[in-house]
Amino acid sequence: MTLLEMIKYFVLYGYFIYYHLYNPNMYHTIISIISIIGIFSYYKVKLEISRKIQEKYNDFADKRCILCIKNFGDVISNIIYIIGGLYNYRNDFQLCLYAILVGIGSTYYHWNPNMSSLFYDRLPMIFIISYLVHIKLGFDFILTLIVGLDCLIKWYITYDMINYSFFQGIPLIVVLISGDFNSKISVALYLMAKYAESNDKQIYEKFNKKISGHTIKHVLSGLVLFLITS
């Protein structure tokens, strides 16, 4: 439940209680109180379920510590975002900057995966997605960024992934609309990356615990940076 919705229900049911206190009708008052308890209990349960689902996301397959680096595969594979950003340095400094921030944010998150660090993993993604929408489709960067940040904040407060997932899916739409050969390759890489991400543990077991699906996801999505502005 968003803050606005909470205020709305407080005002609505507060009015009911106030009305019935000054216009006594025990039956209506009890119904109002039960309704308040019911609706807040529903959202509390919904929030708790969403939180547990999100926390399961933080449980990655590859937890090896190599060279004193925790979660080695998922941490070290973020270097491809930084290399991809530097690759675009001369042609597009803004894309370079956002890509490097994605690499840094993802490295910070995977070093210690939890709900707080996940926010800093997703924050740079909002910037790079907004920028790609701007350069590929001509949408206003600031307005797109505001929409993205709103989706991110709603997810962080409510653990509801719907708005953020939709916004995260925008790159696929962007590259599909642009329609050149590199865009088609980017779509394929993006879809393979999402598949690898959703099969993190299965891939890790299949490759004898040498590389996880999430690590492969980083590599595949990072390769898009070498194609997107070519």
Summarize the structure.
The protein is 77% helix and 0% strand. The protein is mostly helical and 230 residues long.
The count of domains is: 2
Helical percentage: over 70%
Q: Which regions are unreliable across 5 or more consecutive residues at pLDDT < 50? A: none
Number of strands: 0
Descriptive notes:
This protein has 230 residues and is mostly helical. The protein folds into 2 domains: 3-57; 72-226, no CATH class. Helices cover 77% and strands 0% of the residues. The chain has 12 helices and no strands. The chain has helices at 3-22, 26-57, 72-76, 79-87, 93-111, 115-137, 141-158, 162-168, 170-178, 181-198, 200-206, 213-223. The longest helix has 32 residues, at 26-57. It starts with a helix and ends in a 7-residue tail after the last helix.
Which secondary structure elements does this structure contain, and how are they paired or packed?
Elements: H1 3-22, H2 26-57, H3 72-76, H4 79-87, H5 93-111, H6 115-137, H7 141-158, H8 162-168, H9 170-178, H10 181-198, H11 200-206, H12 213-223
